[in-house]
Design brief:
The protein is an alpha/beta fold and about 150 residues long. It is about 35% helix and about 10% strand. Its cofactor is pyridoxal 5'-phosphate.
Amino acid sequence: MNLPEHGGNLIKLSKKAGCNPKEILDFSANINPLGFPEWLRPFLHSKIEDLISYPDPNYTSLKKKIHSKYGICTEQIVLGNGASELILQIPFVVQADYALIAVPCYSGYKEAISLLKIPCIEVTLKEEKQFRLDINELRDILKSKPDQKALVF
């Protein structure tokens, strides 16, 4: 199956489609097609001076605020710059023997497991089954490797 790649590359897509990137509504990358809310521009402008240095990579202040509000230990809080960054970290934490990915899906899952060269089993979702995951197929794969740790996306 020739699967499309993850979106968000409007220039490439517009060249392929022969149109202006502004004519495309891209729902693949969580980008608001309406642009910035009016209140955001002046706020960002007022914070330009804060952009001179990198922010705290450990998110110390934010973790403390989350701890204060929700009572979660700061050591148990994992923050990242978007879901893709966090997804890339999952295989390093899980240390699985193999991965199971239902396809088609977000291409970042396969990218994440490829970083550690984790063997991957793809479970293809079929159109005739409305792209629903066959739980029995998934169970059979997991049962066939009872002594191995699986990472399932």
